[in-house]
Amino acid sequence: MLESVSGRIIVAYSGGCDSHVLLHLLQKQLSHPIEALHVNHGLSPIASDWQSHCESVCDQLQIPLTAFRVAVKQSGSLETNARAARYQVFELEMQSDDLLVMGHHQDDQVETILLNMMSGRAPLGIQGMPAVRTLGLGRLLRPLLHQSRENLRRYALAQGLQWVEDASNEDTEHDRNYLRQKVIPRLTQRWAGFSGTLIEQWARTSDYLNHQEMEAKSDFEAMSVAAGCIKFARFLKLPEARQVALLRHWLRAANCDRVPGGQTLQNAVRVLCSQSAESPIFELGHYSWQRFRSRLVLVDKHSVAEPDWVTTRGDFGPFGAGLIKANVVKGQGVSVPVAQLRFRTRRNGDKLLINGHHRTLKNLFQESGYPPLVRDQIPLAFDGDQMIGICGIGGWGIDMVAGDLAKVSFGVEGTDIHWIPQRDNVKRKNQYSD
User: Which of 216, 193, 201 is nearest to 124 (CA)?
Assistant: First the structure.
């Protein structure tokens, strides 16, 4: 894989033993040029010394090094915040076809599996680091996952490598260090093959998860109406395990940056399928699911629409978390060309003239089948200061509502305008802590 990379090969180099071994191995074994990337978190008083050490090593090996200084949030878990800052650098640095290589090893994998088990993030109770995954515009590779920490240290000593030791690795206030220092040694003392057995279990689980993901993708595509909307009746017929898998797949397809564990998704299934509520909602961070009539919809509440007036470019234009799209259709829509119109979301007191009566948007939304969760994102069409219609939702089976002031007659060409939610407007994020 490494020799066939068409982009850059970049080694994530912290200055510690593991990443130094990786750097040394790749420099010796590859004909493909490599680069190094160092992230200075600034959390240690000698962080600048570590960066200088990395620069010195790379100079000796004649490997180009890029160093970044990041600001790590002090509130919450420093361990988690440092990782988030580090991976943000990695994602931004990656170009198309680049490969970022990391020195994670077997002991790191065991720690990650246990951390994910304790946190409840793992979909089936066990989840480790993938050997390969996408990262930004490129990919991430962990070639040392089958090597133990002790093997890497022996190699480093045999080669006379010099590395830095992070004193914070001894601080058992951090969860990973607590596992490393206090828990795993006791487990290994009791069960000598503990680490290998755990990783074998993870491998079997991973195979099952890959199968489950393919099945969930097929289920989702079979019942998907459009971005953010599926047919509820078909969802209801699935066994609970496949419903949970479908919801997980749906969040990933929507670029959710933290997909929850199975227990949370089981709760979501029970709420959404409950017959005790007419339009149940399940909140999940800044995402929400809602069952409304024959649909199940997923809404990103952070994807708010523009607060002020928006115009289109020709027959389409961006609006909030989607696009406004217009088509010329006989007997549908409004009599005004889309390029002449302005759009905004609803405000208090907005009304639309329908059949000689000024109707509230709340009533029109209800009658026309707009799910409550998306009503604040729907574009309203204005000709000057006059509201003439409510955009439909493309693919959801919700037609445009045209007011009396611009409604076209049967057989006459009109401008039929829909808002099309988009789910692929954000780069995919990693789903699990690794």
Answer: 201
Residue-wise pLDDT tens digits, 285-312: 888 999 998 899 998 876 665 557 888 8
Alpha helices by DSSP H, listed for 125-193, are 149-158, 175-178, 184-190
CB contact set of 410 (below 8 Å; sequence gap of 6+): 331
Query: What b-and-e string marks burial along 7-45, b requiring 16 or more CB atoms within 10 Å of the CB?
Result: ebbbbbbbbbbbbbbbbbbbbeeeeeebbbbbbbbeeee
Q: Name the stretches of the chain with pLDDT < 50.
A: 424-433
Is the pTM value of this prediction over 0.70? Answer: no
CB atoms under 10 Å from CB of 92, counted, come to 10
In the chain, the domains with their CATH numbers are: 9-190 (3.40.50.620), 223-300 (1.20.59.20), 316-421 (no CATH)
Residue 64 · residue 55 · CB < 8 Å: no
Q: Quick one: CA dihedral 85, 88, 94, 95, positive or negative?
A: negative
Per the CB < 8 A criterion, the answer to whether 275 and 249 are in contact is no
Length of the chain in residues, anyone? Answer: 434
pLDDT in tens, 69-98: 999 988 888 888 898 899 999 999 999 999
List, in sequence order, every beta strand (DSSP E) within 311-398: 316-319, 322-330, 342-344, 351-354, 357-360, 380-383, 386-390, 392-393
Report residue 78 CA to chain centroid gap: 22
With 0-12 / 13-18 / 19 or more C-beta atoms within 10 angstroms meaning exposed / middle / buried, residue 224 is middle
How far apart CA 277 and CA 264 sit, in angstroms, is 19
Tell me the C-alpha distance between 182 and 196, whole Å: 19
One-letter amino acid at 176 equals R
Q: What is the Cα–Cα distance from 417 to 54, expressed in whole angstroms?
A: 57
